[in-house]
Design a protein that fits this description.
Length: 640
């Protein structure tokens, strides 16, 4: 039994005796802390997750750390999906120090021209204390700046005693010229003081070696893990589930809300209106020719069962008017046809445009059933419930019941319209839709699946319905780009190229998945003014874009520069075709016919789209195994 005072003495003065046994909780492995960033939807996050899932994390203790304020609630799930023995550590608080320290740090970090000459010792002291504040007595063997941009951590790593490595994910000189989004002073000085500068691609070496003196022997390459296993696993997730709660940043839906019959009737009305405008205020009109022209134009709209019925009704009504007027006016044909024209404008055309007419056409029993219901309820109310037939409350309830019946049939008609318009989705995948609704939407014992098509439409809304229908339509080629609203991603070139191929063949569709970025308004306005806007949808960030990527016909990489362009290989892992601009860092792993490689211009991307649209590409499979094994060895070499 250990005496209480012995424990106190042990804690305060390291006292030991035969009753006290001390254990070292350190497991003897190196500890690696990794500045991971906030696990946002971007390529750096994907590259880090792929790395952690492919290396042997039992060799060392790995801890991902990040400022707590940098992670958003919608990205928490990524922390829970880290490998079991990889820890995460959200840091809080600010750098300690007096007013002089704080002013110095602020000026040094954010004024690119301020070198802090003569105050280096003060800066060193501040950051060593900050490292101790963050990690305390933890024995840190390796400090890895994985994101490669953050100023505070880049400066801190220069002053600590651990071994240090900083990752380079892209051409930092191109990045700075395009966006000025990091401090060259801080980051490039950190390069000089770390043990390893880890490039994700060998092609980044020359620029770094040429522009920064004294780092040549620190440069090593660790090619990104392509993460094919993780991509395939995520790609098998239900497409509908992956699109839930995904924001639509832009879609043009003016016509998408309307049924096929509504659009055709509007087009017919517009064509007939042109005739009416042409006749207006003119003299010596041949009204017989005008009526024949109306009938001729209308006959061209026999494109559905209902429209065929409408044209039949129109012809019958005009014929009845003609016969009636002939009996009155005999052989005065010009007067007769002029009167027919007037009746057409005033009575026949409004009659044909009646929106309720289509409902009763598809459900001819509706009128009789409403009458039968109201008659039956009147009798029951008066004879059995002993209400006066003229009772105001009763009449109101009756009207509500009629509205309920009408709404029920309107929903059935809406389902019919949706099935006809989006048949690739609602006819081919109705079983999947019902399964999804039952599993994800119907959540109460008091609910049941009665109108699956209408319920699915109401759940996802028109933009996603239109997009999913294109995905399942064998006659439409769907292209996708995944990347933030940023100059680096080259969306302007892609939009120009897509617009051009749309003019050549409008059976194409473009999906942009853009989580965030400085060019959001500019990109959306470019699409809004595009001739191809009806066939473009822009989605916001997606937790799992891989089911969508798997369902597309091809991924298009349009970037101006990349460290790798990882999504190209994620698409290949999902057996989705790839059209990519000829960035050396991206295409060096590719053999002929594994992707369509094009010059980095809108014309080049158009040529790639044209080739794909015309099925001029026979894809050769990509073998991931050699690259995974190579990356494993390269990553391990960082620590030796």
């Amino acid at each position: 039994e250990v005496a209480p005072n012995s424990i106190v003495k042990n804690i305060l003065h390291n006292y030991t005796d035969e009753s006290i046994v001390e254990y070292n909780i350190h497991n003897g492995k190196e500890t690696v802390v990794i500045l991971s960033g906030g696990f946002w939807n971007n390529g750096v996050t994907t590259a880090l997750i792929n790395t952690l899932e492919n290396i042997d994390t039992s060799k060392r203790n790995y801890i991902c750390f990040f400022e707590k304020s940098k992670i958003k609630k919608e990205h928490y799930y990524r922390l829970l999906e880290l490998p079991e023995n990889v820890l995460f550590y959200p840091t809080t608080g600010e750098v300690n120090g007096n007013l002089s320290d704080r002013l110095l740090i602020k000026k040094y970090l954010w004024n690119e021209n301020y070198s802090a000459k003569g105050r280096k010792k003060q800066i060193r002291k501040i950051y060593r204390e900050e490292f101790d504040r963050l990690f305390g007595d933890l024995q840190v063997d390796w400090f890895i700046h994985y994101t490669g941009f953050e100023r505070k951590e880049a400066e801190m790593m220069r002053h600590i005693d651990a071994k240090k490595a900083i990752w380079v994910h892209t051409d930092m000189f191109e990045e700075y010229n395009a966006k000025k989004n990091f401090s060259k002073k801080i980051v490039f000085d950190a390069y000089k003081d770390v043990d390893r500068i880890v490039m994700v691609h060998e092609n980044l070496r020359d620029n770094l070696d040429k522009n920064i003196i004294g780092i040549k022997n620190k440069l090593i390459t660790v090619n990104n893990f392509l993460g094919e296993s993780r991509t395939r696993k995520l790609g098998n997730t239900n497409l509908f589930e992956s699109l839930e709660n995904v924001k639509v940043d832009y879609a043009f839906n003016d016509n998408a809300y309307k049924s096929f019959n509504q659009i055709q009737l509007e087009n017919l009305k517009n064509d007939l209106q042109l005739i009416i405008e042409d006749v207006k205020d003119k003299r010596n009109i041949d009204y017989k020719s005008v009526i024949y022209r109306i009938l001729e134009i209308s006959s061209g709209y026999r494109t559905s069962e209902y429209l065929n019925h409408i044209v039949d009704v129109e012809e019958k009504m005009i014929d009845e008017v003609l016969n009636r007027l002939k009996k009155i006016f005999g052989q005065n044909y010009n007067l007769i046809y002029q009167l027919v024209y007037k009746e057409f404008i005033n009575y026949i055309l409004p009659y044909l445009k009646d929106s309720e007419r289509e409902l009763h056409f598809y459900f001819p029993e509706l009128k009789d059933r409403i009458t039968e219901y109201t008659n039956s309820i009147d009798i029951i109310v008066e004879n059995e419930y002993h209400f006066n037939k003229s009772n105001e409350t009763h009449l109101t309830n009756n009207d509500e019941s009629i509205k309920l019946i009408t709404n029920y049939y309107q929903t059935l008609k809406r389902e019919k319209d949706l099935t006809f318009k989006f048949n690739s989705l609602f006819e081919k995948h109705i079983k999947d839709i019902k399964y999804y609704l039952n599993d994800n939407v119907i959540k109460s014992d008091n609910q049941s699946l009665k109108n699956p098509i209408f319920d699915f439409y109401s759940h996802f809304r028109i933009s996603k319905i239109k997009m999913m229908n294109a995905l399942f339509d064998d006659e439409i080629k769907v292209y996708i780009n995944i990347g933030r609203y940023d100059y680096q991603k080259g969306h302007d070139k892609l939009i120009d190229a897509f617009e051009k191929v749309y003019e050549y063949d409008n059976k194409v569709f473009l999906i942009l998945v853009c989580p965030h970025g400085p060019l959001k308004s500019k990109t959306i306005n470019r699409i809004r003014n595009s001739k191809a806007k009806e066939n473009v949808v822009i989605l916001g960030g997606m937790n799992n874009p891989y089911p969508l990527l798997a369902h597309c016909d091809a991924f298009v990489l349009s970037s101006n520069f990349e460290g790798l362009g990882l999504v190209v290989y994620e698409a290949l892992a999902l057996d989705t075709d790839v059209i990519t601009v000829d960035l050396e860092e991206t295409i060096q792993y590719l053999e002929e016919n594994q992707a369509i490689v094009v010059p980095n211009s809108s014309e080049g991307i158009y040529d790639g789209l044209y080739k794909h649209v015309n099925n001029q590409f026979n894809k050769k499979p990509f073998d991931f195994n050699p690259f995974r094994e190579k990356s494993e060895i390269e990553f391990d070499n960082v620590f030796y």
